[in-house]
Amino acid sequence: MKKMSYALIGFMAGAVVMFSTSALADNIQTLVGKKVTKEYQVKINNNAISDKAIAIDGKTYLPVRKISNELGAAVTVDNDNISITTGGGKEQPSSPVEATSDYSNESVTSLNSLIETTKTRLQLDKEQKERVQEKIEQAKKDNFQPAIDEQSTKLKAINERIDKFNKDIQEIEAELKTRK
Question: pTM surpassing 0.85?
Fold first, then answer.
């Protein structure tokens, strides 16, 4: 009799788990197993990026991290949230300082904000530089010259931006020193 009660309890527990799991699964939408109906080439400022966008069930999905990296934005994934952080709400110039060559009309608050934005973008480029250098090393190990060439071109552009950001930071800091 005791074995029968254990079996009954086990059966009931299994049934509860089975039905509650299927009820939860009905609320979850997944793309697993769905057919990609189209691929799109993504261009940023008329330059094609290596990752493609895809269409599934009439919706287009973009490579968020790749696009964010190309635009100088930070992507963070925290539990169920993906956050993209940029220097502002509108399209940014390639250098935050590029829009202004003379800082004499800028407030100290504005200059401090500009320097923080520039430092953030500098840090993002330094991180991107590390990733590109890793890709170059891997391509060298694989003896894959097209990837070496592509990543070397990217590395050159990143180094130019890093130099520009460093110059911009020095100019803003110099302007801030004149205000003290």
Answer: no
Q: pLDDT per residue over 77-124, tens digit each?
A: 777 777 777 754 444 444 444 444 466 667 788 888 888 888 998 999
pLDDT band at 50 (very low <50, low <70, confident <90, very high): confident
Three-state SS at 180: coil
Quick one: which of 38, 75, 74 has its CA closest to 57? 38
Residue from 151, 83, 91, 159 nearest 122 by CA: 159
List alpha helices for 64-144, DSSP H. Answer: 64-71, 108-141
User: What is the distance between the alpha carbons of residues 63 and 78, in angstroms, rounded to a whole number?
Assistant: 17
Instruction: Provide CB contacts within 8 A for 85, sequence distance 6+.
Output: 73, 74, 75, 76, 120
Phi and psi, residue 58, nearest 5°: 80, 0
Q: What is the dihedral of CA 155, 161, 162, 164, to 10 degrees?
A: 150
If we measure between CA atoms, which residue out of 58, 86, 83, 57 comes closest to residue 72?
86
Residue 79 backbone class (left: φ over 0; alpha: ψ -120 to 50; beta: rest):
left
